[in-house]
């Protein structure tokens, strides 16, 4: 009976405090940061045992190894959740609910954004701490835009649909990280490296070029609803995807050059 009582009290605590609508944004961010720390530590533990090349890496390379593991886990998580919210759930359907699509949110969507925000804050802190080893100023800019673009819809519940559309682009991250892992492991001339390059090209084209075109078209179709969002939200919906699109095109150019260079070496 005592165990059952403690269980009921614990469930009540979670429902009324940790998962209450008013505190979900904050608890979810904390959960995201803690998850990053957990993945970082577990990566170091498992890599030391299962990857022969890991012990031979420098301290900074080990840090980047674990950092990329965090970003891979986040990318998989947020891609699945974003695809679910945008394309599979009815939350942002034009036919299921009345009212502007830009004002729709749920406890789960807000919690998901909080987890993602926790990741971007953690990763930004690591980038700044180890600057410029984990990334240059373009990565700092990317993460600052991501933090702003996630925090506002998470806290206000406005414009979340466009945040999830942008976050689908994180689906390209595992391929980028795999490329680094293969390079670090001395497999730059392997078939796996070539296949990964081709997959990266296709994924980037779909998730960071074509998807953003669809996003801008969606904004155009629902512009009357976008105008009802708070001023900061309107600014973020207009600027963040635009700036990220420019950065995506620049990085896409580098991917094309890298792929062509790799293909040329194999002939």
TrEMBL record:
Principal subcellular localisation of the protein: membrane
Highest taxon of source: Eukaryota
Compartment list: Membrane
One GO BP annotation of this record: lipid homeostasis
Listed transmembrane segments: 72-91, 111-132, 194-220, 232-252
Alphabetized UniProt keyword annotations: Membrane, Transmembrane, Transmembrane helix
Gene Ontology CC: one annotated term: membrane
TLC domain ranges (all copies): 60-264
PROSITE patterns linked: TLC
Pfam family, one: TRAM_LAG1_CLN8
Membrane topology value: Multi-pass membrane protein
Protein name in the entry: TLC domain-containing protein
Species of origin: Gossypium darwinii
